[in-house]
Write a structure and sequence with these properties.
single chain, alpha+beta, Jelly Rolls, elongated
């Protein structure tokens, strides 16, 4: 019995050793497949303090309508026919690399145009017809196409398009005839920044997308992969965008580049240090900025003693907070203007009621004492009916303004409870208010046109001098002018706020 037991134990030990050896070998192979990542700061940018004091991005160049700021680069604003791009100043020499890009594409419409592109090309495509960059490039472009040119309802989409420098991009078919890989992803108007991870490793290009639905920065989903793809070993990284008949804000928050080194290979030597003059310049600029920042912090602490001990960084408003504050300020201004117009309209209504009352009493007094030269009774009734109709129309206009006022107040309360649910509902409130103002204008014009001819035909009886009040003609002129001025002011304010918002 001892011999079989010993054989069983030996067999179990052998199986255990084989299993351990297999696990160790498999773990080594798995760990060995992971490349070494090294961050390349000279080919990257990220906020805050993204730009220098002169408005330039270190180691990058921007062209066209691109607008760098402290926390992002607005490649194109939401205006029609805009083009912009940012490119690395010096070429990048890497066999394997990984790029992480965080961006926002936001606009008011249901559809946007044209889109955003991430490039790695042998030369800088500073300006051109392909998403704001040059056509017939030598390299690869990852396109975030938001406009459906071919009408197949396959947008927004992400496309990978390679080029050897001889092909012209097929705009009419949205590049579908030239794309090496594609996936459908809606990247417009997301609550969090959309992130793209592009990995070129062992001649395989992989694209992963974070849709921006959650604050998790690592929530990537596979988009597409292109194998056996050969691109230039040396080239320039760039980001470009363009707008056409429709428009979006294309904002890039960060571009981070990593050098990938295969396992077992020697790591590339670190690049030479920057020249001493350039280093001293950056150090001096940093010290000046730090002194100015400390000075501003001290001034803020003196002006706001209630926030002593609280980190000042927590008191600065974010881009979303600034947009929400501007929306509320604009709504409050419209609210005050409508209230003022409502009060003025109430005064005019009181004058009109008094005028109708005096006219009615005088006609009743003279109704039994008809004299020559006086208007017939039916003409007097026409005058009274006309005045009463004007009174009713003005009352309806005032009720319409009151409705707009209440609707605006309800919208502000709802937005106050919702916090930052987005700007679409806010825009709808502004559109509703403008529609009410259009109704007011049309009603006033209708009153003027309807009462112009009867006023010329009907001869009013001679009445005793009335107290100093507003005449009918002056009243109509006052209403028309007041409404036009108010309507123009609202449109100007809305346009000014929309223009100001584009640059934040």
């Amino acid at each position: 019995m001892a011999v079989p037991i010993a054989k069983c134990l030996a067999a179990h030990v052998c199986l255990l050793l084989i299993s351990l050896i297999f696990q160790l070998v498999f773990a080594d192979n798995t760990a060995g497949d992971t490349p070494h990542r090294r961050f390349e700061y000279k080919y990257s940018f990220k906020g805050p303090h993204l730009t220098q004091s002169d408005g330039r991005i270190p180691f990058w160049v921007h062209t066209g309508n691109a607008i760098p700021s402290a926390d992002q680069v607005r490649i194109t604003p939401s205006l029609r026919s805009q083009k912009g791009s940012v490119w690395t100043k010096s070429p990048v020499s890497m066999q394997n690399w990984e790029a992480e890009v965080a961006f926002r594409v936001s606009g008011r419409g249901r559809m946007g145009a044209d889109g955003l592109a991430i490039w790695f090309t042998a030369s800088q495509g500073l300006e051109g017809p392909v998403y704001g960059a040059a056509d017939q490039w030598n390299g690869v472009g990852i396109f975030f196409d938001s406009f459906d040119n071919d009408g197949k309802k396959n947008n927004p989409a992400v496309l990978v398009v390679g080029n050897n420098g001889k092909l012209a991009y097929d705009h009419q078919n949205d590049g579908s005839t030239q794309s090496l890989g594609t996936c459908l992803r809606d990247f417009r108007n997301k609550p969090y920044p959309v992130r793209a991870k592009i990995i070129y490793y062992k001649q395989t290009l992989s694209v992963f997308i974070n849709n921006g639905f959650t604050p998790d920065k690592e929530d990537y989903e596979f988009c597409t992969k292109v194998e056996n793809m050969i691109i230039p070993e040396s080239g320039y990284f760039g980001i470009s965008a363009a707008t056409g008949g429709l428009a979006d804000d294309h904002d890039v928050l960060s571009f981070l580049l990593f050098r990938l080194t295969e396992p077992g290979q020697n790591l590339p030597p670190p690049e030479k240090e920057i020249p001493k003059e350039e280093k001293d310049k950056y150090q001096e600029e940093f010290e000046n900025f730090q002194q100015e920042l400390d000075k501003r912090k001290e001034e803020f602490q003196r002006e706001h003693p209630e926030v002593q001990g609280q980190p000042i960084e927590d008191l600065y408003e974010t881009v979303n907070d600034r947009e929400i504050r501007q929306v509320f300020e604009g709504q409050n201004q419209i609210h005050l203007e409508i209230k003022q117009l409502n009060r003025q309209l109430a005064m005019i209504l009181d004058e009109q009621r008094r005028y109708v009352s005096v006219l009615t009493e005088e006609i009743h007094k003279r109704g039994s004492q008809a004299q020559s030269g006086q208007a017939p009774s039916h003409e007097m009734d026409t005058v009274i009916n006309t005045q009463q109709e004007v009174l009713r129309s003005l009352t309806e206009i005032r009720n319409s303004l009151s409705g707009s006022l209440q609707q605006l107040a309800v919208g502000q309360q709802q937005q106050g409870h919702a916090g930052g649910l987005g700007s679409y509902e806010t825009i709808q409130h502004f559109n509703d208010i403008k529609e009410h103002l259009h109704v007011v204008k049309r009603n006033i014009e209708h009153i003027v046109q309807k009462n112009a001819n009867p006023a010329e035909k009907v001869k009013c009886p001679e009445l005793p001098p009335l107290p100093n009040c507003l005449s009918f003609t002056h009243f109509l002129m006052f209403i028309v002018i007041q409404s036009l001025l108010f309507f123009g002011y609202v449109m100007y304010k809305s346009h000014q706020e929309a223009a100001a918002k584009k640059f934040f």
